[in-house]
Amino acid sequence: MASYRQLSTHIMSKFTETALAVFALVSVYLAFVSKVIPTPAIFYNEIVPVLPFWALVSFGSYALFTLGWGVFTFNDKEEKYHELLSEIEEAKVYLKKNGVTVD
């Protein structure tokens, strides 16, 4: 099992990576809105206003696909299944030892 320090380092680096990507996308969008990046009028009037909605829908689609794929392939992780069962049994033994009734 990973220690807290290893987990927090991994989470923080993933957070930093995500924050950097969001910052870059927002910066480009704001550059389009403020016309720092020259674009044709049709792009500025018809595409730029819907970019945040498009990004939200794309992110939602990606999140749902990732969640669905994880659920779909959950049974393929046989070693994790057995690890989870052993942890459940370990928790039941611990709880019974401390006077908690467990089914």
TrEMBL record:
It is a multi-pass membrane protein. The chain crosses the membrane at residues 20-44, 50-72. Its main location: endoplasmic reticulum. InterPro entries: DPM3 (IPR013174). Keywords: Endoplasmic reticulum, Membrane, Transmembrane, Transmembrane helix. Pathway: Protein modification; protein glycosylation. It is found in: Endoplasmic reticulum membrane. GO terms for biological process: GPI anchor biosynthetic process. GO terms for cellular component: dolichol-phosphate-mannose synthase complex; endoplasmic reticulum membrane. Component of the dolichol-phosphate mannose (DPM) synthase complex. Belongs to the DPM3 family. Stabilizer subunit of the dolichol-phosphate mannose (DPM) synthase complex; tethers catalytic subunit to the ER. PANTHER family: DOLICHOL-PHOSPHATE MANNOSYLTRANSFERASE SUBUNIT 3. This is Dolichol-phosphate mannosyltransferase subunit 3. It comes from Babjeviella inositovora NRRL Y-12698.
